[in-house]
Amino acid sequence: MTVPKAIAAAVRLVVDSAFPEHCLLCGGVLEPGHMRVASVCPDCSAAISPLSGRRCAVCSLPLVSEEDICTRCRVRRFAFDRHVSLFEYRGDVRELLYYYKFKGRERLAIFFAGFLARELEGSAPESVVVPVPSRPRTVRARGCAAVELLARRCAGLAGLAFTACLARGKGVSQKTLDYETRLANLAGRIAPLPAAARLAGENVYLVDDIFTTGATAHECALVLKKAGAASVTVLTVAMEA
Ligand SMILES: [Zn+2]
Ligand SMILES: [Zn+2]
C-alpha cells in the first residue's frame, strides 16, 4: 500500500518541526522546506562569495600580469581545455566540503551541484558529465564516492547525460605531493571503462571537488581525449589559489 503524497508531506512537516535541523555554518534553525534541499541557511548560502578577479583562461589561477594565460600554463600544457572553479578552498567552503566528504552530509551534494549546474547553462545538450574517479580505498572507507554523487546531481540539475566512465587504480594519497610527483603517481592509474565509448565527439564536463595542482584533472583529460572527447572542461567546487 502506498501512502498518499499529501499525507506523506504532512507527516514530514510534523517530523521536521519536531526535530529541527540547524545550518552547518551559523547554527540557525533551518526552515522545514529548506532543510530538504541543503544544510545551509539562505543567508549563509548567499554570503559565500564566488571566485573573483582576473584569472587564467585555462586553469583559473589568479593572474599577476597583463597576459590572459598564467606563467604555469605558458610552459606546461594541460590535456583539458579549460578549468572553471566556483570558490576558493578556504573558510566556509572548506568547512562545508569537510562536512560533505568526511561527516556524511550527503545532502550538500545538492547544495554544491546547484552552483555547478549554473556553470553548465547554455552548454550543448549532448554534453556529458563525468566524475573524477575516487581511489577505491577512499570509497570503501567512506561508503560512497563523494565526487560521483556530486557529478550525478550536477548532471541531473543541468539536464545532461552522466557517466562514471573512468576507473582509478591503487596509488598513494596525493594530498602532500607536488605536481610532478602526482603525475608520476597517477601514470597509467586512470583507465577508461567501456562506457567511455559514448564520449566520441562530445563535449565533456569533468567534475571534481577540489583543484590543487591540476595533475589528476590532466590525467583524466588525457584518457577522455583518447576516448574521443571533443573537449574537456574541468568543473570544480573549489581551488587552492
Ligand atoms: Zn546559516
Ligand atoms: Zn593557468
Summarize this, please?
The chain has 241 residues and is α/β, with parallel strands linked by helices. It contains nine helices and seven strands, in the order αααβααβααββαββαβ.
Explain how this protein is built.
- The protein has 241 residues and is α/β, with parallel strands linked by helices.
- It has two domains: 1-47, no CATH class; 50-239, 3-Layer(aba) Sandwich (Rossmann fold).
- The protein contains nine helices and seven strands, in the order αααβααβααββαββαβ.
- The strands form two sheets. It has a five-stranded parallel sheet. A two-stranded antiparallel ribbon has the order 4-5.
- Strand 6, helix 9 (215-226) and strand 7 (231-239) form a beta-alpha-beta unit.
- Helix 5 packs across helix 7 (146-158).
- The N and C termini lie far apart (54 Å).
- One zinc ion (ZN) binds next to helix 3.
Query: What's the rounded overall pLDDT mean?
Result: 87
Named CATH topology of the largest domain: Rossmann fold
Rg over CA atoms, rounded to whole Å, is 19 Å
Please give the domain count.
2
- Share in β-strands: 15-25%
**CATH architectural label of the largest domain:** 3-Layer(aba) Sandwich
Shape: globular
Sheet with the most strands: spatial strand order? 1-7-6-2-3
Number of helices: 9
Number of strands: 7
The level 1 CATH classification of the largest domain is Alpha Beta
The hetero molecules present are:
zinc ion
Low-pLDDT runs: none
Share of helical residues: 25-40%
Structural class assignment: alpha/beta
Q: Could you give a short account of the major beta sheet?
A: 5 strands, parallel
Distance between the termini: 54 Å
SSE string, helices as H and strands as E: HHHEHHEHHEEHEEHE
